[in-house]
Amino acid sequence: MSDSVEFVVHSGIGRVTLNRPRALNALDHPMVLAITEHLDRWRADPAVRAVLIDGAGERGLCAGGDIRSIYEDARSGGTESLDFWADEYRLNASIARYPKPYVAFMDGVVMGGGVGVSAHGRHRVVTERTRLAMPEVGIGFAPDVGGTYLLSRAPGELGTHIALTGAPVSGADAIHCGLADHFVPSARLADLLDALATRTPSDAIATVAETPPPSTLAADQAWIDHCYAADSVEEILDGLRGSGDAAVATAKEIERKSPTALKVTLRALRTAAALPDLASVLAQEYRTSRRALRSTELVEGIRAQIIDKDRSPRWSPASLAEVDEDLVDSYFAALGADEWDGSAR
């Protein structure tokens, strides 16, 4: 069990509260196992008719995985991160298949693993404070936790834009991209919690939900769809550089990311779009995650962004031109007996 997650059953709601506010509720392995155990227990518990997940503190639901632990594991050549990802992805799959209504309060920061424990749920609630992101390319990694499944199914090329920039999007953008369902002002989340005690999740949300503000991504979709339709990162960047000030600024942002991670991410998105279900995409993501753990990119990316915070990663290969197809292929190579088995209830 983990002291970093609180579990309460009240008025038929099994409430999961991520409780590491000083770490912006970042997920570690004990937290994942504890959530999995409670969700399994609540499946057959008649006292639980719906599940709610939220985050402690004022900053957000969850900033993702425990990056420092992954950094130390990668540096030492350990395997703890592999076990963590295998169980985290099983939890993501379990949430997507959960037989009871699963409500996520996606208020504030929702990044990486935070997307995994929320955006696969049935009732995904965002607010004016929501800042949702899959920022993995900035640390030499590729989107996981089913992120490539969700982003590959966003309208047009918006998911490609989100993945290659790693930039946060608003609650309104999240709804437009199919990553969330309902907009509720943050000041009314307490009212929604009260309503859940006496109503079904659908009815409770209907009492407080409002029309979201306009989506910025929807307004920019024309140039995003045009530029990101290309088959290579190089072509995408060329298109962005010739498509106006916003697109040029976007190209400069992408150029700061790991060249290897960018190419792996684009391949992962294009492949995920053709895979039949979340489980098959998670199996692919487990391959790319395992390969990233043994790369220099992940260690260097976390060092620059989280450890030393110099924001000056020294990527290797240093340019897109130096990332050959054999290197990208290696991230998708079959794992044999080590494949993610996809088992989740």
From TrEMBL:
<dbReference type="InterPro" id="IPR029045">
    <property type="entry name" value="ClpP/crotonase-like_dom_sf"/>
</dbReference>
<keyword id="KW-0378">Hydrolase</keyword>
<dbReference type="InterPro" id="IPR045004">
    <property type="entry name" value="ECH_dom"/>
</dbReference>
<protein>
    <recommendedName>
        <fullName>3-hydroxyisobutyryl-CoA hydrolase</fullName>
        <ecNumber>3.1.2.4</ecNumber>
    </recommendedName>
</protein>
<dbReference type="Pfam" id="PF16113">
    <property type="entry name" value="ECH_2"/>
</dbReference>
<feature type="domain" description="Enoyl-CoA hydratase/isomerase">
    <location>
        <begin position="13"/>
        <end position="332"/>
    </location>
</feature>
<dbReference type="InterPro" id="IPR032259">
    <property type="entry name" value="HIBYL-CoA-H"/>
</dbReference>
